[in-house]
Amino acid sequence: MMLKAFFKEGVIEAGCDEAGRGCLAGPVFAAAVILPQGFFHPLLNDSKKMTEKNRETLRDIIKKEALAFAVATCSAEEIDNINILNASFLAMHRAIDQLKTRPEFLLIDGNRFNPYPNLQHKCIIGGDALYQSISAASVLAKTYRDKYMQSLHNEYPEYNWKKNKGYPTTDHRLAIKKHGLTPHHRHTFAAKFIEPSLFD
After folding, report:
1. Is 74 helix (H, G, I), strand (E, B) or coil?
2. What does the DSSP assignment read for 6-71?
3. Rounded mean pLDDT of 91-105?
4. What is the CATH number of the domain that holds 39?
5. In angstroms, how far is the first alpha carbon of the chain from the final one?
6. pTM for this structure?
7. Total count of domains within the chain
C-alpha cells in the first residue's frame, strides 16, 4: 500500500514517532519530520518493516530532502521518573521544539499524545505504515537510537546492545542477572523482567 503524502492538504505537517519504548536500557528517541510536497521514495515504510540497510539509506535521503527534521531523547532516568509514555511524548515535544520550520499540524504515531502548545494534532494508530512523514520520523528515530546503542555497546559489551539495542531479549536479561544493572538501564522496566532481589 502506498503511503499517504498528507492528512490535511495545503498544511505544513510534521510527522512524529518514537523508538525504544519497550526497551530495558537506553533512552527513548523521537523524531519530527516535515517532508516537501511531492516527496516519494519506494523504500519508505514503517521502519520496523525495513531492513537495516534500507533504513540507513532512507536516513540520509530524509535528512537531505526534508524541509525540516529533528531528533530528541529522554534518558533512562527521565523514563523512570515520569514513565515511558510521558517520556515518549516529552521526547516528541523536544524534537518539535528543534524544527527549523514551524509546523501547522502534527501527525502522531499511536493513540495518545500530550498536546503541544498552540498546535493541533492527530493521533493515528499504525501511522508509520500510513503516512510518509510519520514513516520518515520512524526511520530517523530508529536509526539514531540504534547508532547510539551501538556506541554504548563498546562501553558495556556484556549486554550485547550492539545486537539487541536494549530490548528484553533472552541474552540481555541473562546478562542483567549475571552482571547487574548499568546507569543506562531503566530500573522500572528491568524490575518487571529480572528477579526483584536485584533492586533491593
Report:
1. strand
2. -SSTTS-EEEEEEE-TT-SBS-EEEEEEEPPTT---TT-S-GGGS-HHHHHHHHHHHHHH-SEEEE
3. 98
4. 3.30.420.10
5. 50
6. 0.93
7. 1
